[in-house]
Design brief:
Length: 457
């Protein structure tokens, strides 16, 4: 009885201005609470606000739950330490209430709940809690993809699945499973009585971005033979790359950019080159197998040539009517970088200031991980990069305010370094890229990323 009374009080607080329940509503909530007496105001600290918001997730009114989720999102973005302390007490409650919102909420509530779960995973970092988030969320997220077609909701679900897999996935099988679910949003498995729904440009962009984000964590040089057959089999690989190539011809610029980034990661990983070499030498001596192998190898080479021409055209595309100059320049700059990478193996080097400290990237995998997380965290990105040790490990970023080298948090980072483009493995791959770049300098046709076989033989 006492809990319901507390929840009704919270509902009153969070129900003000039902028509304005966006993330910014948390500022309104704070304003509403400024009218309480001085003795009450002492009790209303930030921790109690989060407690009240979680209690409000039990309310029947959807708008109340939406506002509560918005309060939680802002709190997790603005004060990472507070969020970490809070989830130590309310981790399971918050996770399961967010999953309930995904199961029964409106599109807006589903979007907010998905984002909250992603933030929860980034806040707790890798470990048992992150693993629990992934295991508990997979089925509700997968089912939510099938209910309704709101692009904003679908994009939030995709981002959530990508982030919780990035943090909580312990092995490549976890990542591959999520990548398959994400891919099926645009390529569903259809039954005889199911009609395919054409996805919007926004959904296609979100799918490709989430898929390529997770692809950056897959080490193609150490995958088991079973996973190679699943992920880099001729049928799946060629279908994926053929589809991405087709997206380069789409009218929507965001789709083209997302597809270009995904292809850059594929070539950087050496996935296509590895399979091309294996296909070229995989014949067991039979005529039919030999012909099939040659056909597959020839198809891959033709596909590479087609993509190179598409990238070259997009790097110099003239602006169409009504084309935003900034968007056009972004596309040109991206595809100039992709073209330089495909022809000469030069990866883009970028740098950005975060609170006076420099964060640098030197590969496509790093850049795409950074851009994805920066977009997901939005206004909370700087705060997380300054305080979130997991993200610091991923990007090799050390704020000057404290020396993180040799600190205890590195033990957690070491468990995850196979996902980081700054790992020893990836640095070795960068050295190999540099060597290949020198070898390719005298060739007429640029080779793609890491070649594992001599294609001219």
């Amino acid at each position: 009885m006492g809990k319901r009374k507390t929840q009704r009080k919270n509902a009153t607080m969070l129900d003000s201005d039902d028509d304005n329940s966006s993330v910014s509503s948390s500022s309104t909530t704070r304003s509403d609470r400024m009218s309480v007496s001085a003795s009450e105001e002492v009790e209303f600290n930030k921790d109690s606000l989060l407690d009240e918001a979680v209690d409000a997730l039990y309310e029947k009114r959807g708008s109340t739950r939406e506002k509560a989720l918005a309060v939680i999102i802002e709190a997790f973005n603005s004060n990472l330490q507070q969020g970490q302390q809070f989830v130590e007490r309310k981790f399971a409650t918050l996770l399961h209430q967010c999953l309930n919102s995904i199961k029964k909420g409106s599109s807006k509530e589903i979007s907010l709940a998905s984002h909250t779960i992603g933030l929860l995973a980034l806040t707790v970092g890798p470990g048992d809690n992150a693993r629990e988030i992934l295991e508990e969320s997979m089925i509700p997220l997968s089912q939510a993809f099938k209910s309704g077609s709101d692009p904003s909701k679908t994009a939030s679900l995709l981002e959530c699945m990508a982030v919780i897999t990035f943090v909580g996935g312990d092995d490549p099988e976890d990542t591959e499973k999520s990548m398959q679910i994400i891919w099926q949003v645009v390529h569903p498995k259809l039954g005889s009585n199911v009609v395919a729904v054409k996805p919007s440009a926004a959904v296609i962009t979100a799918v490709v971005s989430a898929w390529s984000f997770l692809l950056t964590t897959m080490d193609g040089w150490r995958l088991s033979p079973k996973l190679w057959q699943e992920l880099i089999s001729l049928g799946h690989l060629c279908r994926s790359i053929t589809y991405l190539s087709s997206l380069l011809d789409k009218d929507d610029r965001s789709v083209r950019i997302a597809a270009g980034e995904a292809l850059a990661v594929i070539f950087e990983m050496g996935s296509l080159e590895k399979f091309a070499a294996e296909t070229k030498g995989s014949s067991d001596g039979s005529v039919s197998e030999g012909n099939k192998s040659k056909e597959g190898f020839s198809y891959i080479q033709g596909l590479k040539g087609k993509i190179l021409n598409q990238v070259r055209d997009l790097s110099v595309e003239a602006g169409g009517k009504g084309s935003a100059k900034k968007d056009l320049n972004n596309q040109r700059n991206l595809f100039k970088d992709v073209l330089e990478f495909l022809e000469d193996c030069y990866s883009p080097n970028t740098s950005m200031k975060i609170g006076g400290d420099l964060l640098q990237t030197s590969s496509w995998s790093q850049l795409i991980q950074l851009n994805f997380l920066r977009c997901f965290l939005a206004g909370g990105f700087t705060k997380h990069m300054q305080e979130n040790e997991f993200l610091q490990d991923i990007f090799g970023f050390t704020p000057n305010k404290r020396n993180l080298l040799g600190s205890e948090h590195m033990s957690n980072g070491e468990k995850r370094m196979y996902k980081s483009p700054n790992s020893a493995l990836n640095k070795a791959r960068t050295q190999l890229l540099n060597k290949q770049r020198m070898l390719s300098a005298g060739r007429n046709f640029g080779h793609y990323a890491v070649n594992v076989g001599d294609e001219d033989s």
